[in-house]
Please model this.
Amino acid sequence: MKTSLTCLLVCLMIAAGSRTAAGQVYTPLESHAGVAFTVSTLGFGADVAVPVSERVNVRGGFSAFSLNHDVDNDGITLAAQLQLRSVSAHLDWFPFYGGFHVSPGVMLYNGNEVTADALVPGGDTFDLGDESLISDPFDPVTGTALVSFRSRVAPSLRVGWGNIVPRGGRRRWSIPFELGAVFARAPRAALSLGGSACASNGTNCRNVATDPRLQADVQEEQDQINDDLTVLKAIPVISIGFSVKF
Model:
């Protein structure tokens, strides 16, 4: 976080002393604002940018997306709901006065998460840990799962092409494109199962929530999911949009 904020301050200091190609100091009288509508790996969003010097914009925006999808995991049906919710702020620095920019920033709110309801219909087989089990027809296995980020605020860095607020007599619209990442702590999964599970021959039915062996199997599944999620400590961002200056 400190590194990201330092980059913001450095870019502002550099841009504050910049001059236009004609040698004139940029003044607030030339400023405009622009809005961009985007599609990215963070969802559908909108950004608003305001110039603070000839080569620097300050930009803020949000992204959101929702999707429901059923997933089968070793015989356990997960009715999953993906929710992408984020708010970000960036400083766009245009070192060559054109569309190329470097954008350090901060994700001010990271509400990206996955929730799921788990179910194994009675009589169906499923795997838990290293055991093959049958869901008790009289007390089917059910549960919940949650994958969420532990930190709501995280630094980010993007590079791209396109200026939401074109300078001077340039066209009023652009198609901004960006690549980057949000450097967040990896999300964590929480898995909870209840109901009863039986041996593969239908005997020895045990309550998943209270049986020590089955709880150990649940913990093993949760640990495996968390190992797979470590890759998301850097959230990739690919974004394209359409912007208009006004």
Observations:
- The two ends are 32 Å apart (CA to CA).
- Residues 212-229 form the longest helix (18 residues).
- The chain is about 15% helix and 55% strand.
- Helices lie at 2-16, 212-229.
